[in-house]
Amino acid sequence: MNLAAKDIRHNLGRFALTSLGIGMLLMMVMGMVGIYRGMIEDATLLIDHVGADIWVVQKNTRGPFAEVSRVPKNLVDRVAVVPGVTHAREFIYHMIQREREGKPLRIGVVGLSWPLDKGVWLPLMAGRALSQAHYEMVADQKLGLRLGERLRLGKETFSVVGITKGMISSGGDGLAFFTVDDAQLIQFDSPGEAVRLERASRLERAGRADIGLTQPPLLDRALGPSSAIPAFGPPMVSAVIATVRPSFDPAAVTSVISAWSDVSVYTAEDQRELMLRGMVEMARKQIGMFTALLTLISAIIMALILYTLTLEKVHEIALLKLIGAQNRVILSMILQQALFLAVTGYGIAYLAGQKVFPNFPRRVILLESDLLSLGLIVLGISIASSLLGIYKAVRVNPNEALAG
């Protein structure tokens, strides 16, 4: 006769509620670990998918994902002629927030170097990649945009031609993909009045300068768009990305570009490390502390429950000792109950998490190695938690069975 099973059947309701409570705590622990894994996935998503070996960014910055980076578009030509580079292209990344149907809509804007990069590498679940240089966008499903929907950004209206799945920024917001020119239109959009005031200010400055006094026809250009003035370069891009020939060592390419005084250069692995050591590092520490606290709370609760259950069975334990039952029989009963609570709670946590985690606003990724490690930790907690009940059971005097 298994005493642990018999006691569990006798107090089935209590054990069920206890297992449920422990399961909810363990589900929170699983969720914390899964959120951390999801943050790593989101932070390195574009770096892994865009297919670049080299990232060339503004001098002394850490790239477009960690901070603002501005480099001229003609940097593409300089990078393209470096030995070992197969092709180079512009890259733009920035965040915007707009209103849609009365709710805020945060979008991670990614500019693709049309026509070299049309976004055919995107994981499309509906629609197609970009097929023209302007007024098209591919949006992630998290943005809630519908295929064929038209969205006004800046002074232009863009049509959603494709829907992706799982393309999320490091902050958990959905990404939208445009051509580089369209991404710049969105990024550098200014109200008409601001443009008019800037042109008037430009005219006044030119009129006071010597060149304006000696060459009055130049004043007409001051009232025109900035793109018509040779002194003003085209809008900056966030970075220039390059692909290295397979037979070439990326370190040899970076050593050449790093000698340039106006840019910084990183490999794809460097960009990953910068993201993980920067944006994810603080979250990792915070989630680690919460996970440790929840694990400790779970251990304390299990210990108190097992101790309480042992206290309620003091008379029965004393009676067992009085009729000659060995200590190992009693200790085995307590240990088996602890293992039952751990296994049942872990099972509840896993099954409930499969239903709940997909509804979280951030991505939750559960790796088999994490689940196995957590299972071993829970097993160790259950054994350690049973020690308090075992200690009490060992100290029970058999004569207490005669005390009524």
State the separation between the terminal residues, measured CA to CA: 25 Å
Shape: elongated
Number of strands: 10
What is the radius of gyration? Answer: 32 Å
Task: Provide structural commentary.
The longest helix has 45 residues, at 268-312. Strands 1, 2, 3, 4, 5, 6, 7, 8, 9 and 10 form a 10-stranded mixed beta sheet that branches. The protein is built from 13 helices and 10 strands. Helices cover 51% and strands 17% of the residues. The chain is an alpha+beta fold and 404 residues long. The model has no long low-confidence stretch (mean pLDDT 81).
Summarize the topology.
Blueprint: H1 3-10, H2 12-43, H3 45-49, E1 54-58, H4 75-80, E2 85-100, E3 103-112, E4 124-127, E5 136-140, E6 150-153, E7 156-164, E8 175-179, H5 180-187, H6 192-208, H7 210-214, H8 218-222, E9 239-244, H9 250-257, E10 263-267, H10 268-312, H11 314-322, H12 327-356, H13 368-394
Parallel strand pairs: 3-8, 5-7
Antiparallel strand pairs: 1-9, 1-10, 2-3, 2-9, 4-7, 5-8, 6-7
Helix pairs in contact: 1-12, 2-10, 2-12, 10-13, 12-13
Please supply descriptive tags for the structure shown above.
single chain, 404 residues, alpha+beta, 10-stranded mixed sheet, 13 helices, 10 strands
